[in-house]
Amino acid sequence: MSHPFLRLAPISAAVVLLSACATVSGPAATSAAPAPDKATVASAPASAASAPKPPSRPDPSAPKPFDEVIKDAERSAGFIPVWRKDEKTWLEIAPERLGKPMILSLSIANAVGERGLYANQMVSDNKVELRIVGRVLQLRALNTAFRANGDPAMARTVAESFSDSLLAAAPVLSAPHKDSKAVLVDASTLFIGDLPGISTALEAAFRMPYGLDGKNSSIERARSTAQSLAVTTQLHFATPRIPAPPATPLPPTAPRPMPPTTTPDPRSFFIGVAINLTGLPEQPMAVRKADARVGYFTESYTELGNDLTPNPRQHMVRRWRLEKKDPAAALSEPVKPITFWLDRNIPQRYRASVTAGILEWNKAFERIGFKNAVVAKQQPDDADFDTLDAEHATIRWFTGADVGFARGPSIVDPRTGEILDADIAMSDVFGRGARRFITEDVGFSSFAQRPVLQALWGSTRPEDAAYCTYAVDAAVERSFAFDLLEARGELEPDSPAAEAFVQAQIKDTIMHEVGHTLGLKHNFRSSTVITRDQLKDKAFTETNAITGSVMDYNAYNIPLAGEPKANLNVVTLGPYDYWAIEYAYAPLDAKDEAAGLAKILARHTDPLLAFADDADAGGFGGVVGLDPRDNRFDLGDDPLAWTQKRLALSRELWQRLQERGPRAGDDPQRLRRSLLAGFRQLGRAPEIAAKYVGGMYTERDLPGPGARPAYRPVEPARQREALQFLTTGLFSVDSFQFKPEFLTSVGVDYVEWRRAAPVSVPQAVLAVQKQALDRLLSAGTAQRVLELPYYLPAEQRKGAFSLQEVYTTLQSAVWSELKSGREIDPLRRNLQREHLRRLQAMLTRGAPGLPADALSLVRLNATELQAQLRKAASRGGLSVETRAHLQDSLGTLTEALRATMQRAV
């Protein structure tokens, strides 16, 4: 890499060519001596002038003639022509390709199938350009994060202030071609390297020093068309040895080597990388500015060309270029439709549902005047192109040993936000999951894989941590729905109804992911726009969506026992989807665009168009949701009622399982899967219900007349109702009753060497309860509850919900046996220990961000609990386990209260 202070400023292709020709022009030019000046000639001795000159020597380092390098090689013409001979591949770099911006996109073609390293993943893209510096071709990523449009002087300042990056380099192997002036470089030298940063992802996944083995890496194929160059490499990564297990056990939090389990030999594996270089559109697309009231992915940058701009951050909507063939027609086909190719690796039985999910979006485009705006095509089995190239927006299947997600990333023109390519990667878990072949470990591992995936995608931005897990999460929902409906006798395995059940969810998942590739973000408030009564109305659900948007994570519309039956699935677009497409894609004349967009956005207060994104919903990367209406996998206009319904549905499933019991011919793990499906269904309830406690209703209105308040505290009655549900429904032993004869029949598959231990009901119950404890005792909840009165008029503050009410209600519910004198059930003892652990940590170590008033209340309530424990421990008539538990709890709390803690006053 060149020294930072010697970097070349962007230069024209002509200047680069002259520089390159002067450097690599051939032996005659490089060996010529400089002409002496006249004074030197005049003063030279005559004998020196008459002496014979030594023959000139060719420069051994000078590039060979173009034709000599590619002798007997075959040429494939295109954007960057490719020459092939035996195992050698050269790229022909013409002068017009130098110094001209293009897009470099990278995808993983094949991988190891575990821990975030999966096939068919689009991982990164950059605006790049090729430069020749000396005798080296450089591939540079251009810095597009800072710009100064319209101010040449400031543009120079920006270029000097923020560096580009060198991605790859290769020596120039030939002199310029005598006619085209193009030069040759070895494609292997340029592209057999760690362009995607795989080594970082490998370290994050396996905690082992895998290195790129260039000698055993190769170019698998190279293809050039008029628009792009596509090269696929097979990169070999290896380590000389697998570390021996440590002689002594490591602490639980210490990183440890975790070799891959899916490869024949964990010391070696191949990862395929699809590399695409594509030219930018000659005519940039018109920019459409992003607006906070409608959810689109954006191409964002800092604009430094205007000092008067209040906010230098600029955000452009990511969207496809869509233009009418007949601008005057009310309904016209587009000049170029948005075409999605179904890769040939999609199983035949799913292709019709995938196609239906793609084409469903045409309904939204027809509303704004486009006919057949979205097209689905099937890649033939004998096609000569790879759908990972830059010219085919695709849907591809992939699988893995621990995989569970789907993605809909896209490649954009950073100048305008125009989407140039998109590749939807679908884990096959949503096919298998729909048939309930999902085990307790599949589907939850994807969250642990986030650091690996972020490393592979080349991003540390917090928003990129919120990648789409809809496929696997929906598989968990389907497992529960299928089990419950089967237990009710409403759905038989392997029946036509069961197949329709699967296909409907595949269509739903495809609609969701295609929405992402059209530019749409998640919308986690849209599920609240349909009322609970409408969800029970079969006629309504047959003609309308059961949610406001397919971009939500939508739950199944399962009725309680005895309630009317309506449609279960999301089968069509919701009102928000139509509106969002209108905002980004409505064909508007430049002179009328501002007024037209303002008219569209003016409808954002329509309740059916409610919108909230991942950050609003929280639940990832430390982000905590604030508004109880913004959730994943809820349904209906009352999320709290939905959590109560979740508990009722889980309990119904468990009751029916116990009544049915095991039967001849059952899969050995059937009962296990169904039992755990109920706990997974319930696992989201604490997060949703706890948002009400200290919650705030939020609105995205821009400042101006009629704007709704940006923040409005949740009503005290609703906060108390949510707290009551958490402390009675989830903390009650009665919610989790299982017959011993049922638990003894929950077996495992003994054919497998690695088999699970017996299901621990206490641990499953505690996992749900711990979520509620963590949220209610968190520093964020404490701060919000303490600050809620500031958002209320003086006359409403008297009845405001208080933090002391949170702590006392929680403590009374967890330790209710201390007042009643009852025996303490083992499930309750587990809950009490977890509560005590949190109190102990807060009293002895504090909690980051915990307000001082909150810590004072914690100490006050802990002192009261100490007195109650002392009194309860002195009672007789209790089991030895309960007495031991009470004495141990008293000792732990007493030590915590006596401990000194350094804290800021």
Low-confidence stretches: 1-49, 433-448, 459-466
Sheet-strand content, in percent, reads 15-25%
What is the radius of gyration? Answer: 33 Å
Q: Specify the helix fraction band.
A: 25-40%
Enumerate how many helices there are, as a single number. Answer: 32
Termini Cα gap:
51 Å
What oligomerization state is this entry in? single chain
Described by strand count, sense and barrel closure, the largest sheet is:
7 strands, antiparallel
Which term fits the overall shape?
globular
Q: Give the structural class.
A: alpha+beta
| Largest sheet: spatial strand order | 8-6-5-4-12-11-10
Q: Based on DSSP secondary structure assignment, what is the total number of beta strands?
A: 24
- Average pLDDT reading: 88
Protein name: DUF5117 domain-containing protein
GO molecular function, one term: metallopeptidase activity
Biased composition (Low complexity): 29-51
Domain DUF5118: 63-110
